[in-house]
């Protein structure tokens, strides 16, 4: 998976849903090879931001990948620039794991054409890297939640776009598979310059893996920067209404702990 060129720049992104503003003036920049995590309390607009960036919502503002404006591009061209893995996609239950992951190659397959050997090879190597080859012929309806989540990520990776948007990629995964997926993303961004934008509820993982955090609250950006700048006790208690302690981890990145109110 080489030869990506990308980086994403978002400016002034605003969206209304049901006549209510859900995103207001959101901007972000992630260079090629950078990992940006979008954090924030429930309902802050994290999923909406990813959907808006991926072109699934009618929004105001600009989204550029490698300098190309993606809004308004035909879906196939957009899909070569940006891959999006939603948190809970609708999966056709009869499709096999391999068939579903191969759908990631759709932007490269000519109309009325068939997938090439290269498309099959790319898909298989992604399945291998996500430990999914043993499930290749299994229908999606027969998978566990965590297996389904990895298959959705596999489809997005098979797309080989320079920018990857992942909505809560680890929520259904056990510890080992969380680490496997996050380490794979980390190696792809370091080796190939893949730009990774994830939403992450787990602030510990966000601090460990992301270069930059963007904190949303009520659809607005309220803090952005390296984990140590964003994950501070005052910022977290204000925006998450939580009692927390933030301590430096072994690698110097912040660790966030919930503290029981009343000192129990
Ligand atoms: N289709 C929709 N129509 C109307 N309102 C919506 C729609 N989808 C989301 N919303 C609202 O937009 C706001 C932002 O939702 P969004 O799913 O982006 O939040 P989130 O930060 O991802 O939340 P969570 O952490 O709970 O997943 C919420 O108030 C939600 O109720």
TrEMBL record:
Origin: domain of life: Bacteria
Keyword annotations: ATP-binding, Nucleotide-binding, Translocase, Transport
Gene3D superfamilies for the chain: P-loop containing nucleotide triphosphate hydrolases
Residue span(s) of domain ABC transporter: 8-243
CDD domains associated with the record: ABC_Iron-Siderophores_B12_Hemin
Name of the protein: Iron complex transport system ATP-binding protein
PROSITE patterns: ABC_TRANSPORTER_1, ABC_TRANSPORTER_2
GO molecular function: ATP binding; ATP hydrolysis activity
SUPFAM superfamilies membership: P-loop containing nucleoside triphosphate hydrolases
Species this protein is from: Sphaerisporangium rubeum
Keyword Transport on entry: yes
Keyword Translocase: yes
Lineage: Bacteria, Bacillati, Actinomycetota, Actinomycetes, Streptosporangiales
One Pfam family per UniProt: ABC_tran
């Amino acid at each position: 998976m080489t030869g990506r060129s990308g980086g994403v720049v978002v400016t002034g992104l605003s969206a209304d849903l049901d006549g209510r503003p859900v995103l207001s003036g959101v901007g972000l920049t992630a260079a090629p090879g950078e990992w940006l995590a979008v954090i924030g309390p429930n309902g802050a607009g994290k999923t909406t931001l990813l959907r808006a960036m991926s072109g699934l919502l009618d929004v105001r503002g600009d989204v550029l990948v490698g300098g190309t404006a993606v809004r308004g591009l035909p879906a196939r061209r957009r899909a070569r620039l940006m891959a999006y893995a939603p948190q809970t996609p609708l999966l056709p239950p009869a499709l096999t794991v391999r068939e579903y992951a191969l759908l990631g190659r759709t932007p490269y397959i000519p109309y009325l054409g068939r997938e090439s050997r290269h498309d099959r090879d790319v898909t298989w190597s992604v399945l291998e890297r996500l430990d999914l080859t043993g499930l290749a012929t299994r229908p999606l309806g027969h998978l566990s939640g965590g297996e389904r989540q990895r298959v959705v990520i596999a489809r997005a990776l098979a797309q080989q776009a320079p920018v990857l948007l992942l909505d809560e990629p680890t929520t259904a995964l056990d510890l080992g598979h969380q680490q496997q997926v996050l380490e794979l993303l980390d190696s792809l961004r370091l080796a190939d310059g893949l730009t990774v934008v994830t939403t992450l509820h787990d602030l510990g993982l966000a601090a460990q893996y992301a270069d930059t955090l963007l904190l949303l609250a009520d659809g607005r950006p309220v803090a952005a920067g390296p984990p140590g700048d964003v994950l501070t006790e005052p910022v977290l208690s204000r925006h998450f209404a939580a009692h927390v302690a933030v301590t430096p981890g072994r690698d110097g990145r912040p660790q966030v702990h919930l503290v029981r109110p009343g000192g129990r």
